[in-house]
Amino acid sequence: MNQDTNRDSQWREELRNSLTAKQRTSIPRVVMPQLNPQYRITCNHEVNQGLSPVQAVLEATRCLDCPDPQCIHGCPVSINIPSFIKNIERGETLIAAAVLKQTSALPAVCGRVCPQEKQCESRCIYNKMKKQPVAIGYLERFAADFERENIKINHLEPKKETVACNGINIAVVGSGPAGLSFAGDMIKRGYNVTVYEALHEIGGVLKYGIPEFRLPNSVVEAEIDGLRAEGVKFIKDCVVGKTISYDQLHEMGYKGIFVASGAGLPRFMGIPGENFVGIMSSNEYLTRINLMGAGQSGEDTPVLKGNCVAVVGGGNTAMDSVRTALRQGAKRAMIVYRRSLDEMPARVEEVHHAQEEGVEFMTLSNPVEYLADENGRVRAMKVQRMELGEPDASGRRSPMPIEGAIEEIAVDLVIVSVGVSPNPLIPNSIPQLEVSHRGTIVVNEESMKSTLPDLYAGGDIVRGGATVILAMGDGRRAAVAMHKALSEHSL
After folding, report:
1. What would the mean pLDDT of 358-373 be, rounded to a whole number?
2. How far is CA 103 from CA 123, 135, 143, 150, 170, in A?
3. Is the distance from CB of 458 to CB of 258 less than 8 angstroms?
4. 460: containing domain
5. CA dist 266 to 164, 186, 239, Å?
6. Do 271 and 365 belong to one domain?
7. Could you give the 3-state DSSP secondary structure of residue 297?
8. What is the pTM of this model?
9. If phi over 0 gives left and psi between -120 and 50 gives alpha, with beta otherwise, what is residue 153?
10. CA–CA separation, 312 vs 326, rounded Å?
């Protein structure tokens, strides 16, 4: 074993010292090992299998360690990307994991679900060379997984940073990515942090919204255990705004409150027949299966199944839903999306995985009506064919209906995934809180501070629906600002 370790170390050192920049750039980007599509739709096992140490070192070797690394500016939580990657190249993977945790509370999660292709990897200098960028996300996952496995194999306790406690109590509402990121940063600054979660599991959207074939619960639990080890307290089954109020939090001694209650209110399209049996939101569908075990042996939670399933929408949640439907036994699973494949907001990797698994993509199509059988169960959907017109406010070309081009498609289950609205409970329970017309909490974009002096907010309750990493960035900014305000006694 020692001989193998020494041989690996020697190989890494020789590789690092012997390669020129030209040789580094000639190394092809690593291909992520993954489960066979025919097998993976029969189970909930994680599709991406992770890099081997040899693959990770070789991919890390591609990094040119730029003097002005733009990849850092593309990261919403400002990870020191060249530092963690170069530590992987040197074989110092535990140090790489420590670098990640300096700014990210959830590196194993982010390495799996963040849209790196639109963020850090989009800024990689390789793009200017017309080459594929360094696989930053894959390497982030590798380092975080390596640390977790090291803790597990060696029966270690998650490492706790020694920080002097300042005795100030902070409450966090919601245990999704924004809340966890904020909690992690505040506990490092010496605060007593308690996270309140309305559901019976900690993790928020990471648990109820993202399937295990993309993000295993064990990975989320390990990240949460790390926060527990640092001193963060978690209270489940507690609905702030109902179980306890904003005023009661003050009475309990909390000097600062961070609201990260998410956007769990599903949207529908308001078309005829939308109330038929067999039509549900992606929120309900995924929550029943991911959080409550519907469809699993020994679980009592019911969920409707269908032989011919249509998922309306083109985001990551739509991909999660349609791929889940396959794993629930659907014989035909379709994405119905009003724009083209090029305009689809879902990650390219998720679309590719769905295509590999046999999902049909009915693009430039928009449901206009649902039809039911004699029992009130959906049996078909009328779909309006679309064409693309001029770009809208988001820069994507607007879909326009083609007159008379309507077809009827047989379906027995429809999952609507056209967006979510913020959870209204907190805004409605605090009358003095300023809320936008969309139901989001109004905050200062730099500090994430609301119109109340001690209440900050971030994530989907502010954005109305966004990515995990953007929510985490909100949590980090809020922690910086709240700490500054508390230090100056201005709350």
Report:
1. 98
2. 19, 19, 14, 21, 20
3. yes
4. 169-264+422-487
5. 43, 31, 19
6. yes
7. coil
8. 0.92
9. alpha
10. 15
Q: What would the two tokens of residue 455 be?
A: 């209440």
CA distance 99 to 389: 46
Q: What would you measure as the largest C-alpha separation in the chain, in angstroms?
A: 74
The terminus-to-terminus CA distance of the chain in angstroms comes to 57
Scanning 328-424, the segments in alpha helix (DSSP H) are 348-356
Residue 138 belongs to a domain: yes
Q: 43-47, 51-55, 243-247, 464-468: which range is least confident on average? A: 464-468
Bigger pLDDT: 234 vs 396: 234
Q: Which residue has the tokens 């696989």?
A: 135
Residue type (1 letter), 359: V
pLDDT at 98 over 50: yes
How is residue 414 written in tokens?
């429809």
Question: Which of 145, 124, 146 shows the shortest CA–CA distance to 135?
Answer: 124
Do 32 and 89 belong to one domain? Answer: yes
Average pLDDT over residues 370-392: 95
Q: Which helix (H) or strand (E) holds 256?
A: strand 254-259
Tell me the three state secondary structure of residue 250: helix
- Residue-averaged pLDDT of the chain: 93
Q: Which residues contact 122 (CB under 8 A, 6 or more apart)?
A: 74, 116, 133
**pLDDT at residue 1 in the model:** 44
List the Cα angle 227/231/234 in 5-degree steps: 70
Whether residue 432 sits in one domain with residue 404: no
